[in-house]
Amino acid sequence: MASSEPPTASQASLSSVDGVADDLAGTTLSKKQAKKLAKKEAKEERKQQTSASATAAQDDSAEADPFAANYGEVPIEEIQSKAVSGRVWTEIGALEGQLSGQSVLIRGVAQTIRPVSKKMAFLVLRQFTSTVQCVLSVDKESVSPQMVKFATVLNKESIVDVEGIISVPKDPITGTTQQVEVQIKKLYCVNRSVPNLPINIEDAARSEKDFEKAEQTGVQLVRVGQDTRLNYRVLDIRTPANQAIFRIQCHVEDVSSLAGFLQMRFLRSEGFVGIHSPKLIAGSSEGGAAVFKLDYKGQPACLAQSPQLYKQMAICGGFGRVFEVGSVFRAEDSYTHRHLCEFVGLDVEMEIKEHYFEVCDIVDRLFVAIFDDLNENCKTELDAINRQYPFEPLKYLRKTLKLTFEEGIQMLKEAGVEVDPLGDLNTETERKLGRLVREKYDTDFYILCRYPLAVRPFYTMPCYDNPAYSNSFDVFIRGEEIISGAQRIHLPELLTTRAEACGIDVKTISSYIDSFRYGAPPHGGFGVGLERVVMLFCALNNIRKTSLFPRDPQRLTP
Amino acid sequence: MASSEPPTASQASLSSVDGVADDLAGTTLSKKQAKKLAKKEAKEERKQQTSASATAAQDDSAEADPFAANYGEVPIEEIQSKAVSGRVWTEIGALEGQLSGQSVLIRGVAQTIRPVSKKMAFLVLRQFTSTVQCVLSVDKESVSPQMVKFATVLNKESIVDVEGIISVPKDPITGTTQQVEVQIKKLYCVNRSVPNLPINIEDAARSEKDFEKAEQTGVQLVRVGQDTRLNYRVLDIRTPANQAIFRIQCHVEDVSSLAGFLQMRFLRSEGFVGIHSPKLIAGSSEGGAAVFKLDYKGQPACLAQSPQLYKQMAICGGFGRVFEVGSVFRAEDSYTHRHLCEFVGLDVEMEIKEHYFEVCDIVDRLFVAIFDDLNENCKTELDAINRQYPFEPLKYLRKTLKLTFEEGIQMLKEAGVEVDPLGDLNTETERKLGRLVREKYDTDFYILCRYPLAVRPFYTMPCYDNPAYSNSFDVFIRGEEIISGAQRIHLPELLTTRAEACGIDVKTISSYIDSFRYGAPPHGGFGVGLERVVMLFCALNNIRKTSLFPRDPQRLTP
């Protein structure tokens, strides 16, 4: 193979093993790939040749083939809005035994193409998360040997239309989700993929167990590194586990259909109003963490590092209880398994009457509802993830455990870990505490409250009895922080004092501080990263797995 | 009043009348306000004095007052998470006749405070969209003249807790939403607002009819200009119309509970998966419109001007049907009633089998469902908007009208308006066509399809029969465009050719174009601006009314 050509799937995948497998792989491959992408002319040329030869093959035989009309490329006009034919396509997920003997029209992706002989071939078609086995076998009514040949020279991942008869095999089918077969009578290619995919879906879908098994039998399987996956994300997200991950994320966000007949959504049913706050803001956001800066029509601006200030302003505007699902931007240089430069924040802010435990109560009930719902309604998706990335189900209590920071410190101390009682916990200590809590309370999900004031943002309300502590909390899943929340300061004088003490230039947040001068209710709230919820619920090892097109300090594309 | 002090409500409001009232007002006031904000020390000082004197007044009389415990400022600890008292607050919206004779505890905003005598005062308390009349009258069990005095020196918009007995007056109450009165027994101030608000809620809530009536009787009412409203958005959004606007927006977004028992959400029930695409992207987005540029860790980046490329990539990734609700950024210098630099986009993308009318069909059913739902389930909110901004209900058909661009041109021609048959329509012509369509078809909502290719983005699929036209459509409400949609090009070669023809640097979108090489299904989609849907459904005159904290070329704050 000429060096100017793109690597085949196995080449690309093997090179990625040189880096850190399935983790924060190095950039070796990325450079190669960049080169490759720049040289796609060669690829295209070859593709056109392949395509042309396939068509030629078909044309050659077509002359002598009485069933030539039963297969071939779909003319572009037919998928270019020429006419509404009225034909009815059946979804692959809907192919079940009760359709036995009936003719169906399906459109799917040719996931695998397996020639058996010149007279027979098997195809597995995929649509979304469903797959079905199709059999193409020469007969006297519709299928010719030329048609079988046409099928076997299709490139994997091409889009095809199949007309066929449903049948139910005697033995259960293990390789597909649907327990029926389709006897192909017509087969058309809607869109042909390139012959050599940068990654193979089967490779990308393998579990560690598959690798272990293969190793025992001396077979070397291709391993697709995390970086390669992200470079070819469009292929990577076609795996069952990835299809499931983003369906689960969507489900969590649909915060959250309480299990049950009425399908009431949790936040809505609690009287929360969904809002959208601006992401382009003046000044330097909340200070502290690094922000992305830009020029806004001649004014210095930055991207909001959270909707914090604006959701509080919405509370001052009389909305009572608000939530927002939206993009959050962090210019931090954190290159870890759990940080992104852009993620989806679920933010909640609410009036409280007297205690920030009113906020903790919403966290408790919301997340127990989310977890219950996932376990009850996303079994298929959780199974798909489990097959590739096995994990223990999350342990959580009906009433979420609440510990104080001081109690946490004490537990650590008793376990021999000394921690600064007025400092923050680091990731390692948090994990350790998570293990201790699991041992003692049998839960992977708990709230740690009353954090030292010094480690919380300036707008956090100090404790009434000890200003070294604050009315704040973090929430942990499997020992990792996913939620931060607190009562906020609603008194403009105290807010100004605290902002100044934290080194914030109060002039840049004057409209925020002024919002509390016109009658401001006591309030609190919290923020969650959507990607982290899914990552930790499923015990995935990298947040890039739960971000559709992740952004980190080194990745801005695709 | 010293010049260093902030203007009172009437001053601020009157100055804004100098600009364009209730419209795109000039910047005269903004400068004044900037000055004012910088000088808030003076304000704070005065506030503290006022607060101190109020407390003093109370203290003076408290000594001689046997009912001193029944009123006063709530000590900060009590709203600083000291304890969970177990007291139960009733929502103002829940105060109804059946509670007559019962004692309730409510927290609300002191919207109006009207002293009648030294022994009696009326308060109207507001919570979210509900208001209730409260009566404070000296008696022998709990209310002293000092308590009445305490009430009358409260500043409007302060947050108060009231304990009182519910009664039902003989005559209906016209000024509040709740048809009961609260006989106040205890009254505590939770948070005191400044004595002189920059805008009064009553002023901000007036309709044109109120102004007309007042003018007839020779009364001059204060008019709050759009710019002043946005400067003090936290106060402005407390009006009933604004509370309703953002509740309706949330309802539309909750796309969209189909009216009916099961509360199935429309897009979800149609098999769409909600996704989140990155807003930080490499290169120059889709080209064309101006983008906000920024530095991303040393790489040139910009803010996505739509999720277009990424939602198509999600389709190539096998999700079948996706939608996204998220921020969209446009650096255009459009300073009109209908453009924002940042808005909320509802984007949909879906596989199609053969015709882009499959996309139009989703638009049709989705929006008819949304409109039905708003009319059925948001009556209270629509009434609140109607009281301040009267509008005719939207006319729409059960099956949405679809006209071709050529038919539209012909209708305009017959009405004496000559339009370039291969050019775009301008705002004025669109409005004219909207009127013609309304006359002929009795609808304010219709789809115009088959636009000239030259006026559509590069990724738009040309028509099969005439490459001067495209498989695209716009959708109009009341003669204004709210939706753009089309079939997309799923063939990488054609996509490259079209991008080059449109002057796009294809290198910057190579990962997008490559996505179509791995088996790409025919697909189409559309995008909607959430703010425009609400603006046009309610026939509001300015998109700033439906954006919580709007961003335009001149506004980056609050």
UniProtKB/TrEMBL annotation, chains A, B:
The keyword Lipid metabolism does not apply. InterPro entries: Aa-tRNA-synt_II, aa-tRNA-synth_II, aa-tRNA-synth_II/BPL/LPL, Asp-tRNA_synthase_2, Asp/Asn-tRNA-synth_IIb, NA-bd_OB-fold, NA-bd_OB_tRNA. SUPFAM superfamilies: Class II aaRS and biotin synthetases, Nucleic acid-binding proteins. The keyword Ligase applies. It is found in: Cytoplasm. Its EC number is 6.1.1.12. Residues 265-558 form the Aminoacyl-transfer RNA synthetases class-II family profile domain. Gene3D superfamilies: Bira Bifunctional Protein, Domain 2 (3.30.930.10), Nucleic acid-binding proteins (2.40.50.140). Keywords: Aminoacyl-tRNA synthetase, ATP-binding, Cytoplasm, Ligase, Nucleotide-binding, Protein biosynthesis. PROSITE patterns: AA_TRNA_LIGASE_II (PS50862). Residues 31-62 are annotated as: Disordered. Its main location: cytoplasm. GO terms for molecular function: aspartate-tRNA ligase activity; ATP binding; RNA binding. One of its GO terms (cellular component) is aminoacyl-tRNA synthetase multienzyme complex. Residues 39-48 have a biased composition (Basic and acidic residues). One of its GO terms (biological process) is aspartyl-tRNA aminoacylation. Residues 49-59 have a biased composition (Low complexity). It catalyses: tRNA(Asp) + L-aspartate + ATP = L-aspartyl-tRNA(Asp) + AMP + diphosphate. Belongs to the class-II aminoacyl-tRNA synthetase family. Type 2 subfamily. PANTHER family: ASPARTATE--TRNA LIGASE, CYTOPLASMIC (PTHR43450:SF1), ASPARTYL-TRNA SYNTHETASE (PTHR43450). HAMAP family: Asp_tRNA_synth_type2. This is aspartate--tRNA ligase. The lineage of its organism: Eukaryota, Viridiplantae, Streptophyta, Embryophyta, Tracheophyta.
